Amino acid sequence: MSLSNEFRDPDLCRNLLEQIQHLADTPFRFMEVCGTHTVSIFQSGIKSLLPENISHLSGPGCPVCVTHDSEVNTFLALAKEDVLLVTFGDLMRVPGSRGKTLKAAQADGARVNVVYSAFDALQLALANPSQNVVFLAVGFETTAPTVAATLKVAAQQQVDNFFVLPMHKLVPPALQALASDPEIRVDGLLLPGHVSTIIGLEPYMFLAGDYNIPAVISGFEPLDILQSILILLRMHKEKSSAVINNYKRAVADQGNPRAMEVMQEVFKPVNTAWRGLGDIPASGLSLREKYQNFDAREKFNPAPLHTESNPGCKCGQVLKGKILPPQCPLFASVCTPAEPVGPCMVSTEGSCAAFFKYSL
Amino acid sequence: MSEKVLLDYGSGGKASQRLIRDIFLKHLGNPGLNRLDDAALIQDISGPLAVSTDTFTIFPLFFPGGDIGSLAVHGTVNDVAMLGAEPRYLSCAFLLEEGLDMQDLDRIAASMGRAAAECGVQVITGDTKVVPRGAADKMFINTTGIGKVIADPAPSGSRAEPGDAVLISGTLGDHGLAILTYRQGLKFETDIQSDSQALNSLTSRLIREVGDVHVLRDPTRGGLATTLNEIASQSGCEILLQEDQVPVRREVQGGCSFLGLDPLYLANEGKFICILPEDLTIKALEVMRSHPAGRDAALIGHVREGQKGRVVLRTSLGGHRLLDMLEGEQLPRIC
Predict the structure, then answer these.
(1) With an 8 Å Cβ cutoff, is B184 touching chain A?
(2) Is the dihedral of CA B162, B166, B172, B176 positive or negative?
(3) Which domains does chain B have, with CATH numbers?
(4) CB-side exposure of A351: number of CA atoms within 13 Å?
(5) Is A311 helix (H, G, I), strand (E, B) or coil?
(6) What is the pTM of this model?
């Protein structure tokens, strides 16, 4: 914790901003793909301090935002079963196809518990042996290993009332989809710090190698972000591209092999649908056969009733960086944090919510 | 007395009387309450009066830095004080769940008694109901406070004026984070304590010694950001807040950044915002900092014409952004 203040030093930040200002004599578009970066860029005021030539786009970096309608409808269908649903807080307000949310389901009598980790969910299952407990497993590579480790414990202890609904997403395949989309023009990518602590540097190498996109793994403090933007900008100016680890205090180049191993032991990659980005090969995780008895889909076979998307919602285009949130016709009129239509307005780390909450 | 609260204790009969005598009169008794009439007689205050009511429900009942009893006294005393009044009397209604630990009730009543004595208020009327197990979560407390207004005109959220200074009496987010972390069983290097405390002696001094106080408001639920938005909206002006001047304890800042929370939106139970003409800033800060409840007081912003109802944050880096009201509760995030 004591680290954080040193990485917010206003004088050092101003110095970096001046260097960025100096280099930004032509337009430069960078995208971050991590909700925590989104919030930090808005919250610290970096957004309002960047030179006009620099455009900041928020990509598919918020786990809630990329959770597909069909998945939302699936867990809303599960809420009708005789189960105790256990979830991270962000999912509580995500509306399904007909505007229904877990909060509303809770008011209707569904039992929903908010936790900070998958282990807490397992604890609940152990404490309530006569109750089926289902953990809603969303999140990227940061979260997936902890869910995997929890399932290993559950398997060792032969817990038979604990289930997960796997909705995990993997970041590199989504970046691949973005990089190969000719309509998306990004001059640099700010890579997610938390995800990188697990996967390391290697899975991003194709960005520079195949697509000539400069990419920098960044921390979350203002100083981290400004320095990473400066590195991206320099590469852009020099017409070079590389993948650089600028978050060495937390991210080892090789990532966390142990966490990856646990994740791969429990999960296998599968095709999955991302909101906005559509189906992406090998970008999701499903349970390997040994762990299939923990799969809530297998056990309860929840039938989502409606899977049509909310009409007019442009979250998909926002997530691809094709439009900015205010360019969506629903933004701030029909779609607000009080009554969100799309998930980018629900999660505090969603780009629409950040625009709504912080932009003057 | 039974070790648990039984439905009998809410019957109005002998069991109720024992509960009143052995718990409530023991800890909260005073000549007014001891009369046990249907209503309390108030004969010694007149003139403009301030009245405020609040109902308290908190899990857990006991938390680092306080409990539901002290909170129920401080919360209402502070609300009365925010109108520029000196709180004098409280009513107190308990809604108890059958099966509540009698020892817990005794501890909470004792804590209320101590808190009331410290604030200089008396509980002069009360009520107890017991509901069947499951119909309430252990205990709810309602308190209503009444006090004599000593400021003329009384401070109000609608009286902020362009040019006014915005002060805060101390660090922000302590209560909200203490409750959240305690509830979740999270531990940080330093224990975070609730800031639950009475503010009436400090606000009285401000009014008597500094005078022209335009707004007093305690940023409880929704935190500083939400309360400033309410004031900007009620007063039809814009408030500019300086992020680097806002006092937040290092451990609270750390805990918030770990949990994805913003201390500006966390509840406080022992802090107040004071808005007054800029030329009174130094005097007001002197008074606040010389009082235990205002040791960390700071000038944190200004009121300006700007866009009506808006709060703008000047960040530590010098950027500007909107500081919006809280929407619903802050929820733990996924990573």
Answers:
(1) yes
(2) negative
(3) 7-149 (3.30.1330.10), 164-322 (3.90.650.10)
(4) 28
(5) coil
(6) 0.85
Whether the CB of B257 is below 8 Å from some CB of chain A: the reply is yes
**Partner residues linked to A270 by β-bridges:** A284
A135 beta partners:
A86, A164
Task: Judge whether A75 and A136 are in contact, CB under 8 Å.
Answer: yes
Helix, strand or coil, per DSSP, at residue B86: strand
**B328 contacts in chain A (CB < 8 Å):** 93, 337-338
**Which residues of B are less than 8 Å from A42 in CB distance?**
321
pLDDT score for A348 = 78
Q: Residue A89 is nearest to which of B316, B318, B332, comparing CB atoms?
A: B332
> B302 near B228, Cβ under 8 Å?
no
| Homologous superfamily (CATH) for A1-313 | HypD, alpha/beta domain 1 (3.40.50.11750)
Q: How far apart are CA A343 and CA B3, in angstroms?
A: 50
Q: Which pLDDT belongs to residue A339?
A: 84
Contact B331/A348, CB-based, under 8 Å? Answer: yes
CB contact under 8 A, A44 and B317: yes
Give me the residue from A2, A90, A93 closest to B334, CB to CB: A90
- 3-class SS at A241? coil
8 Å CB contact of A93 and B189: no
Q: Are B223 and B297 in contact (CB under 8 A)?
A: no
Residue with tokens 């500081």: B323
List chain A pLDDT tens, one digit each, 360 residues: 334 567 888 899 999 999 999 999 999 999 999 988 998 999 999 999 999 999 999 988 888 888 988 899 999 999 999 999 999 988 888 888 777 899 999 999 999 999 888 999 999 999 999 999 999 999 999 999 999 999 999 999 999 999 999 999 999 999 999 999 988 889 999 999 999 999 999 999 999 999 999 999 999 999 999 999 999 999 999 999 999 999 999 999 999 999 999 999 999 999 999 988 889 999 999 999 999 999 999 999 988 665 666 678 888 888 888 899 999 999 999 999 888 888 788 887 888 999 999 998
Report the C-alpha gap between A123 and A138 in whole angstroms: 18
Secondary structure letter of residue B321 according to DSSP:
E
A356 contacts B324? CB cut-off 8 A? yes
CA atoms within 13 A on the CB side of B250: 8
Order of all β-strands in the sheet with A111-114: A111-114, A84-87, A133-137, A162-166
Residues of A in contact with B318 (CB under 8 A): 10, 14, 45, 49
A26 Cβ partners below 8 Å, 6+ apart? A53
CA distances from A299 to A65, A164, B70 (A): 26, 10, 48
Contact check, Cβ <8 Å, B319/A44: yes
**pLDDT for the residue A307:** 61
Calpha distance B243→B311 (Å, rounded): 12
Who among A115, A143, A337 is closest to B335 (CB)? A143
Q: Are the beta carbons of B315 and A1 separated by less than 8 Å?
A: no
Residue of B151, B155, B147 whose CA lies nearest to B77: B147
CA distance A136 to A94: 13
Question: B328, A93: Cβ pair inside 8 Å?
Answer: yes
State the span(s) of chain A assigned CATH 3.40.50.11750.
1-313
